[in-house]
């Protein structure tokens, strides 16, 4: 089920529902495309009709950002839990390892996805990692052939947004894999190159504050949250 914020669909599924639905999608040979939605992307889509269309094309738009939860409460919606890109990736790796499905890691700087794959294997020893390509490979045919030959069920694409989402819609029909998720900087985090906020910050919804302290330039992105909420409020009847 979906809620709409400024024209952008967001799924109100929890991790458990998503895991179940996506595994069913794989088993029933349906393709699915997962995109993480945050207020910044929704605002960007206000000025970019292609992006708006692209976000709405996805099968599952996960609510990745406290701003979405606030907007959902304000509009009488039911989204109460954040679903982050990286936790969705982990949830899918867990499911893949439990059900004998395989994953492919495409994106990030050379060497980063390898390190991320080692971390994933530590967490899920039974996980089948079908292959890896870094995000700076230019030869599109090579990328497509390598992924198809590896025959993964799930492809994680880490090229940054919205590039990774455009890559997914442009290629998913010609690929055999079933599930495609845009995962942004997740391989950097898994490889240990970039640190995530301590669990306590994540739990109380203050991951943004931790990131702001570590990377003060983020203020430019975070300042957009009040703008987003005001716009949502204005469209509320
Ligand atoms: N990246 C890539 N190829 C490119 C540009 C970027 O693989 O041509 C990778 C980059 O190395 C990083 C990720 O894309 O791993 C972008 O991460 P970021 O945190 O910026 O993602 P976002 O904030 O868009 O989710």
From TrEMBL:
GO biological process assignments: cell wall organization; teichoic acid biosynthetic process
EC number(s) recorded for this UniProt protein: 2.4.1.187
GO MF terms held by the record: N-acetylglucosaminyldiphosphoundecaprenol N-acetyl-beta-D-mannosaminyltransferase activity
Signal peptide, first to last residue: none
Organism superkingdom: Bacteria
InterPro entries: TagA_TarA, WecG_TagA_CpsF
UniProt enzyme class: transferase
Catalytic activity: UDP-N-acetyl-alpha-D-mannosamine + N-acetyl-alpha-D-glucosaminyl-di-trans,octa-cis-undecaprenyl diphosphate = N-acetyl-beta-D-mannosaminyl-(1->4)-N-acetyl-alpha-D-glucosaminyl di-trans,octa-cis-undecaprenyl diphosphate + UDP + H(+)
Associated pathway: Cell wall biogenesis; teichoic acid biosynthesis
Keywords: Cell wall biogenesis/degradation, Glycosyltransferase, Teichoic acid biosynthesis, Transferase
PANTHER family given in the database record: PTHR34136, UDP-N-ACETYL-D-MANNOSAMINURONIC ACID TRANSFERASE
Recorded family membership: Belongs to the glycosyltransferase 26 family. TagA/TarA subfamily.
UniProt-listed HAMAP family: TagA_TarA
Function comment: Catalyzes the conversion of GlcNAc-PP-undecaprenol into ManNAc-GlcNAc-PP-undecaprenol, the first committed lipid intermediate in the de novo synthesis of teichoic acid.
NCBIfam families named in the record: wecG_tagA_cpsF (TIGR00696)
Protein name according to UniProt: N-acetylglucosaminyldiphosphoundecaprenol N-acetyl-beta-D-mannosaminyltransferase
